[in-house]
Amino acid sequence: MTNAIYYKVSYVVEGGTHPGAIMNEDTEPIVGTEIEFDGRVFEITDVEELMPPMGDFGFLHAACRYLRDA
């Protein structure tokens, strides 16, 4: 039996320069790391739990800022 938690993460881009994304992740996002979606690279600036995990699935909100095109 595994205790792995999978995450549905809502990525919101600071300043409204990009609409963001909702993505399934195997690991929890970490502040300071980079994430790539839609051909662009972003830095995660904040991570908040939207609600406690349900079974093996967690729901998170991550704020990020645009760094560069991929």
Briefly note the structural class of the backbone.
mainly beta
Helix content: under 10%
The low-confidence runs, each spanning 5 or more residues with pLDDT under 50, are none
Radius of gyration: 12 Å
Number of separate strands: 5
- How much of the sequence lies in strands comes to over 45%
Q: How many domain modules? A: 1
What characteristic shape results from the CA principal axes?
Answer: elongated
Strand line-up in the sheet with most strands: 2-1-5-4-3
Element string (H = helix, E = strand):
EEEEE
What is the end-to-end distance? Answer: 38 Å
Mean pLDDT: 93
Number of H/I helices: 0
Please describe the biggest sheet, giving its number of strands, its sense, and whether it closes into a barrel: 5 strands, mixed
